[in-house]
Amino acid sequence: MKLSQFKYNLPKDLIAKFPVENRDESRLMVLNRKTGKIEHRIFKDIIEYLNENDTLVFNNTKVFPARLYGNKEKTGAEIEVFLLRELNREQRLWDVLVDPARKIRIGNKLYFGEDDVLVAEVIDNTTSRGRTLRFLFDGTYEEFKQTLYKLGEMPVPKHILQREAVPEDRERYQTIYAKHEGAVAAPTAGLHFSKHLLKRLEIKGINFAEITLHVGLGNFRTVDVEDLTKHKMDSEQILITPEAADIVNKTKREQHNVCAVGTTVLRTLESSVTTDGFLKPIEGWTNKFIFPPYDFAVPNMLVSNFHLPYSTLLMMVAAFGGYDLVMEAYKVAVKEKYRFGTYGDAMLII
Question: Which N-terminal stretch is annotated as signal sequence (predicted)?
Answer without folding.
Answer: none
